[in-house]
Amino acid sequence: MRAAVIGGGLAGITAAIALAQAEHEVTLLEAKPRLGGATMSFSRDGLVIDTGQHVFLRCCTAYRGLLDRLGMAAHAPIQPRFDVTVVSPEKKAELKRRGLPAGLHMLPALFGYPFLTWPQRLRLGRAALAFKGLDENAKQTDEARLGDWLAAHGQDERTRRVLWDLFSISSLNVPGDDASLALAAVVVKTGLLGDADAADIGVPSLSLGELHGAAAVRLLTKLGATIHLQTKVNAITPEGDQFRVHLGGAELLVDAVVLAVPHEQAARLIPAGALPAETVDGWVGLGAAPIVNVHVIYDRKVMDVPFAAGVDSPVQWVFDRTRISGMHARGDAGQYLAISLSAADEYADKPVAELRAQFVPALAALFPAARDATVTEFFVTREKRATFRQVPGTARLRPRAATGLPGLVLAGSWTDTGWPDTMEGAVRSGLNAVVALHEHFTGTSPQISVPHAESVVDQ
Questions:
Q1: Which of 202, 178, 180 is nearest to 191 (CA)?
Q2: What pLDDT shows up at residue 98?
Q3: How far out from the chain centre does Cα 94 lie?
Q4: Residue range 352-375: average pLDDT?
Q5: Domains of the chain: which residue ranges?
Q6: How far is CA 184 from CA 132, 141, 252, 331, in A?
Q7: Which fold would CATH assign to domain 93-198?
Q8: How many Cα neighbours within 13 Å face the side chain of 208?
Q9: How far, in Å, CA of 36 to CA of 38, rounded?
Q10: What is the pLDDT of residue 290?
Q11: Cα angle: 161, vertex 137, 58; to 5 degrees
Q12: Alpha carbon of 309 to those of 201, 338, 379: distances in Å?
């Protein structure tokens, strides 16, 4: 089978590898100068900068499988046990799981969480038990707002801000109260209430460009796939049982197409007849949500943990990027911190000077050593369309991989994966696409397991 994979993000990379490993003739087409999609890196003044900070959990089995296939699992280590430092201007705490069975493993950390009162901590169990009983696939669950549901289950404003938001905002990229209850339930039930080790955090020790893009080029080349970078697809035309992919001055005639691009691009490229027009028109309802990353370089070390979560602060999560960036290799002895801001509508267009005036003092409030340190560099990266807007009612808008045109399938973390718009969801979508193709061409299920479970730099 000759297959064209359109889009070189994680979904497209996953599909291309699976097809190439099955000995199909694969051409991967990517409009940007490198593979990786939203998980790319670039160089700036001798530093390697990721477009955004990405982490994963032990329960992200599809993504971890991709790392294995890329030969990069050793460069994305996972904590031995879930361990998060939480800081505020007044105090510091540690959320760490204990060596207890699933269901009990987080209780000591939650009962000792100093940002909540004892009555607030005791009421956490009420919500946790209610989450276990939720059907995340039910229409009414997706149509409910997380904040309303939490409030109805004893979680007051303070509890939602300093605990539930730590996990919902970073994983769903919308304000915690506004998130789809169904997607929040996937996060909580799989990561926090599932296996005891499910939420252990993995943080890459290499830049995303090396971890995903460069590794994918090496593997796909070894498998005999063809990769075309800086190649824009203008149209896809069905021709009998095949498809003609129009590339401006060139064309490809293929047996199968994996359309692995964001939903706005997919709506423009998908041929008439593949899906009902009202379905494709409905994708606009998925919208887009931004992520902003604030990069601060100090002349000395100011944070003594690999990453931390902030409460009672505009800082959401902050990561030590010193080693990965190659900062010391260029002769700097300081520390490079990156603040990851999800649900970042208020920051998406804010001038760099205003962000500096807000976040440099905020970091100093959280980390006392930063008060006497000098900021040597400050810049901002913005992903204005980082994810779709994961609010109530979006489940019905997310299409399955198969379309009405046999041989044409959809991939991307915005499609119906059963997961939020994350790296895990992207990889699952690529596997779903290959499964759909295999079932069409052979009438059987393939030996592929789908596990259960443009950045702008401102100076």
A1: 202
A2: 87
A3: 24
A4: 98
A5: 2-39+206-286+393-451, 93-198, 289-387
A6: 12, 10, 41, 44
A7: Guanine Nucleotide Dissociation Inhibitor; domain 1 (1.10.405)
A8: 22
A9: 6
A10: 97
A11: 60
A12: 13, 12, 20
Tokens 């149509």 sit at which residue? 143
Q: What percent of the chain has pLDDT over 70?
A: 97
Average pLDDT (8-27) is 97
Cα(319)–Cα(456) distance, integer angstroms: 20
3-state secondary structure of 210: helix
Average pLDDT value for residue range 156-163 = 97
Return the CATH class of domain 289-387. alpha beta
pLDDT higher than 90, residue 169: yes
Instruction: Enter the CATH code of domain 2-39+206-286+393-451.
Output: 3.50.50.60
- Whole-structure pTM value: 0.94
Residues 48, 324 contacting (CB under 8 angstroms): yes
CA neighbor of 112 nearest in space, from 47, 163, 188: 163
Structure confidence at residue 122 (pLDDT): 93
- Sequence-distant (6+) residues with CB within 8 A of 373 are 298, 299, 300, 302, 334
Burial per residue of 177-202, b for 16 or more beta-carbon CB atoms within 10 angstroms, e otherwise = bbbbbbbbbbbbbbbbbbebbbbbbb
Which residues in 46-61 are b (16+ Cβ under 10 Å) and which e?
A: ebbbbbbbbbbbbbbb
**How far apart are alpha carbons 269 and 6 in whole angstroms?**
10
pLDDT in tens, 75-116: 999 999 999 999 999 999 999 998 888 877 888 888 899 999
Q: Which amino acid is residue 83, in one-letter code?
A: D
Residue 277: CB atoms within 10 A of its CB come to 9
Kindly state the tokens that stand for 80.
Answer: 């031995």
Among all chains, which residue has been given the structure tokens 């089995």? 61
* Beta carbons of 233 and 91 less than 8 angstroms apart: no
pLDDT tens string 280-296: 999 999 999 999 999 99
CA distances from 28 to 14, 117, 267 (A): 11, 54, 19
Q: Which residue has the tokens 């190659």?
A: 326
